[in-house]
Amino acid sequence: MARAPGIPAQPLLVAFLAWLVTACSTKVAYVDDERLRNAEEEPENWLSYGGGYSEQRYSQLAQINIGTVSRLAPAWSFDFDTYRGQESTPLVVDGVMYVTSAWSKVYALDARTGAMLWSYDPEVPGSAGPKPCCDVVNRGAAVYKGKVFVGTIDGRLIAIDARTGKPVWSTLTVDPKRMHSITGAPRVARGKVFIGNGGGEFGGRGYVSAYDTETGKLVWRFYTVPGDPSRPGDGAASDEVLERIARPTWHGPWRDYIGGGHAWNAIVYDPDFNRLYIATGNGFPLNRKYRSDGKGDNLFIASIVALDADTGAYAWHYQEVPGESWDYDSVQDMILTELRIDGVRRKVLLHAPKNGFFYVFDRASGELISATPYVPNITWSKGVDPVTGRMTVVPEAYYMDAPFTSSPGAGGAHGWQPPAFSPKTGLVYFPAAENSTHYISTPDYEYVEGIDSPGFYFHGAPAHGAESAAPQRVPVGVSTRSRSYLLGWDPVARKAAWRTDVRGGGGVLATAGELLFQGRSRNGVLGELAAFRADTGEEVWSYKTPNAIMQAPVTYSVDGEQYIAVTSGAGGAGILSGGEPAYARQPGRVIAFKLDGAATLPEDPPLAPPPAPPEETWPTAVVDDGKAHYARLCGRCHGLNMRSANIIPDLRRSAALADKEAWRAIVIDGVLERQGMVSWSKFISPEGAEAIRAYVAEEARRLAGSIKAQDGSRPSIQ
Ligand code: CA
Predict the structure, then answer these.
(1) Residue 384 and residue 390 in contact, taking contact as beta carbons nearer than 8 Å
(2) Mean pLDDT throughout 117-129?
């Protein structure tokens, strides 16, 4: 037992009785505030999403180091029961791993062997499948005083008994009629569990809620943007500050879908000030022209907001993207540490959001200490005004009257993949990308709940999931993703220490073994785990995995052996970025490595079967009609422009493609709802569904022809 309760000296009898009561009650996953605050003192465990309250994702473990890493090999792997994307950070408490999977399922595994101790399925209805923008992923659980907490795709927050895997309480945190979903990991402190939600691509208002860890009762809620001015306040912790500070930054006619600012990822508790920092996403609609009459900052979208953790009362905020219009979510993970800046030691918050600037804040006051471009050639902003501390946005960047090519693009210079910070090197490590997007305002705006309605186009195609920006949808000469790398950033010197080219890199783990660990994709679907020197970024080890890796690895130790563990499984926003060759679908899994590990991983999956298009043909007008429907309704899951990664099935390879009745039964009648393929009859007629089949059939013929032209030998990948 890593943290057996100590016996205080005075008064001895009372203390002994207290210890006895504690020792006899459940000790499984008994993680409290004290342990979370001092997480670095028990590196054998990984106690919370970011590794502890400071969320540095740094471990003191050093058995695996530059000298030994060449001996690192799989110790065990555990297969999930789903093909969908895996974004979970496993937690490890006293030899037990708590890991979540797609569809918000939770597993307790023996951290030494991978043997399952229990599993919990919240039975998310398939009808909730389309609610998240980017796959039914889950980024992880929280563990606190014997309970495991998980947020679900359909918006519930559930407490599970860590010993038995049985639910203790369940609370619905969202309006089930709206397009809210939870993919982020809850955080816990002082008897409260904190959770936000996603939905910023579909309308509504973001908020963060605090629930009592014992009862599931709501303690406080903070809305990130104001509500309809014709209605009274929300009766929430945010009422006063929204009226005083935020509402004056909003303009134009008010509609009930407007707002955004969803806190769908990063929430950090700061025990130094008893504050909660919440990081907010894009505004909705994404184009400010239609959201706020083309003006105003629209607080608190794309911001960091500091709240009192007990009450939700506002403390300070900083908006990183005034009047956000480019899908620049500011939800990236925040790191808490202390740095010596200009000779003064300061408690700081470090942040590298999508917008391309690296921020250092003073946690006490909220003062912005620095904002420095961490990628070159940023076009949307001229940086922070040194006098006002406000970000200066280039007026043309709002693409009000003419299209604008913004860099970074809508995929961002850094996604949700967590950064790490090493106190040893003083560097922050994260996957960064240089990219751009050509934004074109739609001529008018119509809100349709349930499908993307951002209010802009990429070069004529409906825009979302810009990560996937296919070259053909961007004007010639506009690069979409020219370079991506693992970045070692010095937050004091405000410059890159090094950049190591990595394609498809995931979140990062830093260790006292002078190493960084980062997973990545090979061709979008297959994966690899790699280790780098923390001081120079030199890659020193890698191991091919059957599945792509998106989330950061964690490290822990059991019986004196150090492990590196990571969830693997392509998906998430990556469902949009696939291409040929496509592979057969395979389950996601957890993989644990140790020195001289003797396990073997499954083989890479075989190539996907070639498409089998029907003999039928349709008039060009029908095919074109189907293409437009596909772009509007299908592309965000099945692959924009039919660039399918075959994680959510590649429709060109679907058996239903040659069967009109089966196609209709799926698209119109919703017979596959349990798998998340709901009926789309609300948005399309049977004739429209048939037109989509015509388009997909045409694309299937094209793909089959191209595979045949290569004589069946599709290109191998590196
Ligand atoms: Ca977004």
Answers:
(1) yes
(2) 97
Supply the Cα-derived Rg of the chain in whole angstroms: 25
Domain count, the chain: 1
Catalytic residues: 327
Give the domain range for residue 631: 620-708
Q: How far is the CA of 200 from the centre of ligand 1 (A)?
A: 6
Domain with 658 in it: what CATH number? 1.10.760.10
With respect to residue 6, please indicate whether it lies within any of the assigned structural domains.
no
Q: What is the pLDDT of residues 326-346, one digit of tens each?
A: 999 999 999 999 999 999 999
Residue 544 β-bridge partners: 528
Please give the average per-residue pLDDT across 677-696, as a whole number: 96
pLDDT value for 19: 54
Whole-number Cα distances in Å, 678 to 113, 634, 666:
38, 11, 8
Residues written for the chain:
718
| C-alpha of residue 636 to centroid of ligand 1, in Å | 13
What does the H/E/C string look like for 375-426?
Answer: CCCCCCEEEECCCCCCEEECHHHHCCCCCEEECCCCCCCCCCCCCEEECCCC
Indicate the pTM of the whole model: 0.93
**Two tokens at 651?**
């429709």
Alpha helices in 393-522 (DSSP H): none
Arithmetic mean of pLDDT, 596-618: 94
Could you tell me the distance, in angstroms and rounded to a whole number, from the CA of residue 179 to the centre of ligand 1? 14
DSSP strands (E only) in 250-366: 259-260, 267-270, 275-279, 283-284, 303-308, 314-319, 335-341, 344-351, 357-362
Q: Which two tokens stand for residue 20?
A: 């006895």
Backbone angles phi, psi at 591, to 5 degrees: -125, 130
Residues with CB under 5 A from ligand 1 (ion): 282, 327, 329
Residue 24 domain flag: no
Structural domain contains residue 580:
no
Q: For residues 215 and 340, give the distance between their C-alpha atoms in angstroms, rounded to a whole number.
A: 42
> Would you say residue 286 lies in a domain?
no
Report the interhelical angle of 660-667 vs 686-709 (nearest 10°).
120
